[in-house]
Every structure is written in C-alpha cells, then in structure tokens.
C-alpha cells in the first residue's frame, strides 16, 4: 500500500491567538519548532517532540499540529498500531491508530482538538484506512480537568465523534478492564468488506465465550 499524504493548512482562533492548523507536517519542520510547556500529558515536551518527529518519518505516520508561529500548542498522531498491542497482530497496512491527541492548557476547550481532527480528514487518502483510537482512562488528564472518568469519556466521544469515529465493541482485555475505556473507530469509505471482516477478527479473538 502506498501511504499518500496530502498537506493541508487552515487558520483557527483560540484563546486570543490566531493558530495555524496544519499537516501532515514534515519531520524536519517539526524538529525545528518549539513544543509548548503545556504539552506534558505523556512526556516532557522535548521528549514528546522527538517522538513525534520519529512518527512523522514513518511511511504511514501523520502528525497534524496547531501552532502559534513556531510554538506548537497541540498535535494529533496517526500511525500503525503499537507492535505490543493486538491491533498490530493482523499486520493490516490499512489500519491506523490515532495514537495521541493533546492540546496545551493555554488553548483547551476552544475547539482546537476538533479542528485538528477535521483538518486530518481533509485528506481524502484517509478514506482508504480504518482508523482506531483506544481510549484508556489512565491516559486522560483527570487531575488537570477535575473531571471524573465519565465526564472525560464524554469529551473523548465528542472529540473523536466530530470526525465520525464511533464506539465499537471488542473483547480486548485492556479495554475491557475498565468500563470507561473503549475502542473507537472510523472505517474509511473505500475500505473493502474483506478488510472490515479482518478488523472484526482482530476486535474479537475469544468468540467461543459468546
Ligand atoms: C482531550 C483534549 C485533546 C481535548 O482537546 P480540546 O481542544 O480541549 O477539545 P475541544 O475544544 O475540541 O473540545 C471538544 C468537546 O469537548 C468539550 N470539552 C473540552 N474540554 C472540556 C472540559 N474540560 N470540560 C467539559 N467539556 C470540555 C468541548 O466543549 C467540546 O464540546 P462540544 O463538541 O459540545 O463543543 C485535551 O483536553 C487534552 O489535551 N487533554 C490531555 C491529553 C489527553 O487526555 N488526550 C486524550 C488521550 S490520547
């Protein structure tokens, strides 16, 4: 499969700033930018920047960012699922994971998360993919928002739902380990039935139980 990536760019106003929402961003450009101190949900900003540059270098990797000048205030990542997780077992070239989405506190709850996802889907190439997002409550910023798991889950449903991602059942033990965790997915318009059936087999591996 050839991973076609088409670049798009928009402006978006949030928190009194005129942001550029753009991507997929080339690794060299991303490396030259600065990550805002508020981008620390998963790692310190500098480490996260390095990790994102590596994703941007992958043939299938896509990084969409929100920036004010050279200051990155938000990002979304797309790449093949982690080899440690069941989603990679089928080695589906057309399966991408929306691996992380983060927006700095400075511009949160102003639509930036949804705007980055909307921009991702301006690229019609994503209609050839099944895109999943595994929602684990231990990745959420419960402390920073003061929300409980259900309040936070609602945000994630709104953010992911804005690009047509829907909740999908699975018997994956990690997802099933807490009721607020969930699998969300969007099946691209050009994905063929046999690929969807393959994905169904990945979602359910213990059918004898049902
Ligand atoms: C999750 C996250 C990316 C959302 O980004 P965001 O730019 O703040 O989200 P948006 O502004 O696009 O908001 C989406 C919806 O959630 C709502 N929302 C966002 N933050 C909220 C909050 N703290 N309380 C209540 N509602 C909230 C918005 O009002 C909006 O609702 P609407 O669709 O009805 O208008 C951001 O909170 C974040 O970076 N969190 C830390 C990292 C994380 O948890 N990532 C997810 C796991 S990978």
TrEMBL record:
Q: Which GO terms describe its molecular function?
A: acetoin dehydrogenase (NAD+) activity; transferase activity
Name the domain of life.
Bacteria
Name it.
N-acetyltransferase
Q: Which residues form a coiled coil?
A: none
One GO biological process term is: acetoin catabolic process
Write out the entry's keywords from A to Z.
Transferase
């Amino acid at each position: 499969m050839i991973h076609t990536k088409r670049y798009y760019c928009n402006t978006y106003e949030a928190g009194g700033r005129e942001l550029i929402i753009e991507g997929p961003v080339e690794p060299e450009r991303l490396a030259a930018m600065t990550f805002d101190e508020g981008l620390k949900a998963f790692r310190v900003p500098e480490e996260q920047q390095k990790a994102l540059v590596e994703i941007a270098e992958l043939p299938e990797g896509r990084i969409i960012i929100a920036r004010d000048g050279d200051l990155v205030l938000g990002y979304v990542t797309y790449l093949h699922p982690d080899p440690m997780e069941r989603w990679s077992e089928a080695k589906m070239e057309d399966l991408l994971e929306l691996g992380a989405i983060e927006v700095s506190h400075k511009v949160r709850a102003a639509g930036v998360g949804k705007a980055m996802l909307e921009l991702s889907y301006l690229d019609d190439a994503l209609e050839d993919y099944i895109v999943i997002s595994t929602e684990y409550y231990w990745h959420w910023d419960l402390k920073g928002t003061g929300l409980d798991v259900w309040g936070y889950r609602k945000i994630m449903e709104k953010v992911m739902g804005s690009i047509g991602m829907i909740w999908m059942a699975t018997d994956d033990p990690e997802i099933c380990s807490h009721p607020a965790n969930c699998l969300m997915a969007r099946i691209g318009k050009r994905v063929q039935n046999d690929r969807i059936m393959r994905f169904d087999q990945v979602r359910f591996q213990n059918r004898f139980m049902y």
